[in-house]
Write a structure and sequence with these properties.
This protein is α+β, with helices and mostly antiparallel strands. It is 31% helix and 30% strand. Among the domains are: 424-442 and 454-544, Immunoglobulins (Immunoglobulin-like); 547-584 and 591-645 and 666-671, TATA-Binding Protein (2-Layer Sandwich); 678-821 and 850-872, Glutathione S-transferase Yfyf (Class Pi), Chain A, domain 2. It contains 18 helices and 42 strands. The radius of gyration is 41 Å and the shape is elongated. Residues 680-773 form the PTHB1 hairpin domain.
């Protein structure tokens, strides 16, 4: 970007404000309507508007054409020209034509009166060429003169037109002929005597290109579709007999790219030049086919204008080129040397040069929407100062205060009532229904059947009813990474009003593991007629049969969770409860107290989840050796206990009022939280796999670099015809190719393992989310909600950042801010170091630096969740001590599992003894209960007080 800017001198807006202008829409010429006039600006639009402007230049500005220095000094220098205000007298003509205007030109197109100096306008329409005469009518009384557009004659075209050029074809004096180029490349010539004929150039013309006439040599120049600049003599083209015509151009030059524009100028008595603006180059060729210069452009040009300063017969004449880039910069060249650069106010589609009143050599620009401006090159630079770097240390307290102030400003400027109105309007405009159709059927996806032989798939039906007409509507199906979808996106444009569409997709397990959640969410985003985008969301639960199948219950497991239901289920017998909750897995009439479920895919490895129901209480136990498998089963069990899901079927969540009431009445609490060590172990596995994938990608980059080196050496030896050396190079190529294929296979396998690790980590986070959400004595408030939200999203790694890098700032903020922080640990922890993270990010090839964020996240997350678990445990202990209930896990041993009679009995005796000892040691005065209650109250007040003081959202 240039330091200088093009100074605005005069501007206006054409009547058509739509994007209806191109490089052929602007024409600057002296029409000779009156004596001593300056150049006029003729603008034609694709909507048919034809306007002629003549900027007046104001009354208090000097005429720079005058040679009176005293007057110029009195009125100011040229660099201090003020911006002129558009006046109504600046418009000479403004008329609406019935057809679009493709091009405008001016010249002597009639022979009625050779002494008349006035020029005529030639306007090119898609199927017509019209010649107009500007007639000035003297005004009466106080009314001024006005100009009318009189049609002299027109020519109908047989084919659509593309461009127009004129000139004294054949070397005639005092007359101009017209040539129209059609879209198929053919030429139509019109002479003033009513003679017209059509000619076709020798080479094939599939793409039309700019066409210009060279008066000095009486030739036409154009660019062929093969990107060759060709020159045809007019006498050869105008020859009537095909047998006598010369088909080949007199000379041709390959320019190697499409020509955006082409202009012709005579620079001396013996030479004319052809200037071609390409997509990447600026070329100048003489009229004899010799290249004068080629300028390589390091920017994308939009339009250009060339002109000659001085008279061509003078030795001091110079060829000037003004090129506009797509960034809005104007670059001025003298031949191939740049002499000035300035920034335009907007990016034009056409540029010209005109001599207007008070400003000779003005730059005229036309924008795509009709913004017409006249300016000049300014000499006052717009300096930019680099702001000072903010080297202040990172302070969490200061950032927290700034974030609180910004949140208050946002809340003050946002009206929450508008959201409900907008949501209601979106629901009225588009009605979205999502449901599962039929029962699961055997999967037919080829990639899945090879991996999972016994998998099934279900049909998801999406129905959309649109009330108003919409410009765009998009449907997106979002599922867990472990769930595949036949087609996850639909896009529609110009949706008709009152239309209904239904789309069916198939969902199936894609990997041999359990997903973290079986919820499929359909998002419907659309743009209404006001241009506002709205989003609707509907969720549906997939059948459990797709992912789980029954197995033999296990008598012992490493991880156990206990659920308490209040009020208890309607049927109190153990067998009837599990049979009613899971009828698709338990046989009819079964009275088993335990149910084991294992993944449909990969279930042969012994991984399973066991559900044990108490015989005479309202408690259930979920146990497994794998934490990742428990999330899906636990979520399904809670949903069916609360009635948010029809038993044995998958329906939309909370879609009926009765289920909402039942869900609000039934309370399910989970006693205890799984060990944090399982989550930390899964994070470490994810980090190790990501490091392995990174190392394999580095090895692949090295191997492919060697392959390119060997290929270059092979080409060199092949050119030298050294057959003996080819044997060694071929051996190296084969070995290197084998190494590249091996690394590619390893990367594919490792990425599949990384995907499985991401799914497992997501499931473990989902399990912690369910435990904290249904904990009986968890400290409530906003921060616990944000803690559970932190554990509810999917684990994804981007190309630039890993999951650990993205989550570390959030976990660190929760760890150091709020009631969960510990002042003792806070003082001992390492302060935030920006330089460490910057170094770890820049040297990402070092395996130690890749795991730095993972180690920090593991430590922060372990301490944060450890504090939450301690508080939940303390609150549970206080509640159990105050209630005096002797119930423990002994309820599950009233009906032991089939394979663990003796062990369960021993466990029952131990639990009874433990309960009796606790009852005997409990103080009778209740002092311990009061003390723990005060501790719990202090904990709760800490949450409440912090929310009232800061109210800082995360």
């Amino acid at each position: 970007m240039s330091l200088f800017k093009v100074r605005n001198w005069w501007k206006t807006q054409c009547p058509t404000i739509e994007p209806a202008y191109d490089s052929f829409s602007l024409h600057c010429a002296r029409l000779c309507i009156e004596e001593g006039e300056k150049d006029s600006l003729v603008v034609g639009s694709h909507t048919g508007q034809l306007c002629i402007y003549r900027p007046s230049g104001g009354t208090n500005l000097p005429d720079l054409d005058a040679e009176d220095d005293e007057q110029g000094n009195a009125n100011g220098s040229a660099n201090e020209l003020a911006e002129n205000v558009f006046q109504h007298a600046d418009v000479i003509l403004e008329v609406q034509l019935p057809l679009p205007v493709l091009g405008v030109s001016s010249g002597k197109f009639t022979t009625t009166n050779k002494t008349d100096p006035r020029l005529q306008l030639a306007v090119l329409h898609p199927m017509k060429l019209c010649i107009y005469q500007l007639v000035t009518v003297d005004g009466l009384a106080d009314h001024g003169d006005h100009t009318r557009l009189v049609t002299l004659y027109d020519h109908a075209l047989s084919k659509p037109a593309f461009s127009l050029c004129h000139g004294p074809f054949g070397g005639v004096k005092g007359r101009d002929f017209l040539c129209v180029q059609h879209l198929d490349g053919s030429l139509r010539f019109f002479e003033q005597d009513g003679i017209s004929y059509e000619r076709t150039l020798a080479t094939d013309r599939y793409i039309p290109a700019p066409l210009h006439y060279v008066p000095r040599v009486d030739c036409f120049v154009t660019v062929a579709p093969s990107w060759v600049l060709e020159c045809y003599r007019y006498q050869d083209v105008a020859e009537a007999l095909e047998t006598l015509r010369r088909h080949d151009p007199i000379w041709a030059l390959c320019i190697g790219e499409y020509a955006l524009d082409l202009q012709v100028h005579q620079i001396s008595n013996t030479e004319s030049v052809i200037v071609i603006l390409g997509e990447n180059n600026l070329l100048c060729v003489s009229d004899t086919g010799k290249v004068r210069f080629i300028k390589k452009l390091d920017y994308s040009p939009v339009c250009f204008h060339s002109f000659v300063t001085g008279w061509y017969w003078e030795p001091g004449a110079r060829l000037m080129l003004a090129v506009v880039s797509e960034s809005g910069s104007l670059l001025l060249y003298e031949s191939d040397q740049i002499i000035w650069s300035a920034q335009l106010g907007h990016v034009p589609v056409a540029i010209g040069r005109a001599n207007v009143a008070g400003l000779p050599g003005a730059l005229v620009t036309l924008g795509p929407t009709g913004a017409l401006a006249v300016g000049y090159l300014g000499s006052e630079p717009q300096l930019f100062r680099v702001p000072a770097l903010n080297l202040a240390p990172f302070e969490i307290a200061r950032c927290q205060k700034e974030l609180l102030e910004l949140e208050r400003e946002i809340r003050a400027g946002v009206d929450p009532s508008d959201a409900s109105i907008a949501n209601a309007a979106a629901e009225r405009d588009v009605k979205l229904e999502v449901a599962i159709q039929g029962e699961p059927v055997p999967c037919t996806e080829q990639q899945v059947t090879v991996l999972l032989s016994s998998s099934e798939m279900c049909q998801l039906s999406v129905t959309v009813r649109v009330e108003p007409k919409l410009e765009m509507l998009q449907l997106t199906v979002a599922t867990d990474q472990a769930i595949g979808c036949s087609k996850d996106a639909f896009l529609f444009r110009d949706v008709a009003a009152h239309s209904t569409e239904r789309f069916d997709v198939w969902l199936y397990p894609a990997v041999p593991t359990l997903p973290a959640s079986r919820t499929a969410t359909v998002y419907c985003s659309y743009t209404n007629k006001q241009g506002i985008t709205r989003v609707l969301e509907r969720s549906v639960l997939l059948p459990v049969r797709l992912f789980l199948k029954p197995a033999q219950p296990s008598k012992e497991a490493q991880h156990k969770l206990t659920l308490t239901v209040v009020p208890p289920p309607a049927q109190h017998t153990a067998g009837s409860v599990l049979g009613r909750l899971f009828p698709e897995f338990a046989p009819e009439g079964s009275s088993a107290s335990a149910l084991a479920l294992q993944p449909v895919a990969g279930g042969g490895d012994g991984r399973k989840v066991t559900i044990v129901a108490a015989k005479s209480t309202n408690r259930f136990r979920v146990q497994s050796d794998e934490l990742g498998l428990m999330a899906l089963v636990l979520e399904c069990l809670i949903g069916r206990l609360q009635g948010r899901e029809s038993v044995g079927h998958a329906t939309e969540q909370d879609d009926a009022a009765g289920r909402k009431d039942h869900s609000s009445r039934v309370q399910v609490t989970i006693g205890g939280v799984p060990s944090v060590s399982g989550l930390i172990r899964s994070l470490q596995v994810h980090c190790d796999l990501r490091k392995a994938v990174k190392q394999l990608e580095t090895d692949l980059e090295i191997a492919t670099g060697q392959m390119r080196l060997f290929e270059r050496r092979f080409v060199v030896k092949l050119q030298e015809r050294s057959l003996r050396a080819l044997d060694g190079i071929l051996m190296l190529l084969k070995r290197n190719h084998t190494a590249v294929a091996k690394v590619c296979l390893q990367i594919k396998t490792m990425r599949q393992k990384l995907k499985l690790a991401q799914i497992d980590l997501t499931a473990i986070l989902r399990l912690f989310h369910l435990c904290y959400s249904h904990a009986a004595n968890a400290p409530g408030g906003k921060y616990l909600e944000h803690l559970t939200a932190l554990l509810a999203h999917s684990v994804l790694d981007s190309t630039e950042q890993s999951y650990e890098e993205m989550m570390l700032p959030v976990v660190r903020f929760l760890h150091q801010t709020g009631p969960l922080k510990n002042t003792t640990e806070q003082s001992e922890s390492t302060p935030f170091d920006e330089a460490f993270f910057y170094t770890a990010k820049q040297t990402d090839r070092d395996p130690v630096d890749l795991s730095a964020h993972s180690h920090l996240l593991q430590g922060q997350l372990q301490r944060l969740l450890g504090r939450v678990n301690d508080r939940i445990t303390a609150a549970t202990t206080a509640r159990s001590s105050g209630s005096g209930s002797g119930r423990n896990s002994v309820d599950f041993e009233d009906q032991p599992l089939p394979e663990a009679h003796n062990e369960e009995a021993e466990e029952e005796e131990e639990e009874d003894e433990k309960g009796q000892n606790e009852e005997a040691n409990r103080p009778t005065d209740g002092s311990a209960g009061v003390e723990e209650f005060a501790q719990l109250s202090a904990t709760a007040s800490e949450w409440v007080n912090y929310e009232k003081i800061s109210d800082l959202p995360l």
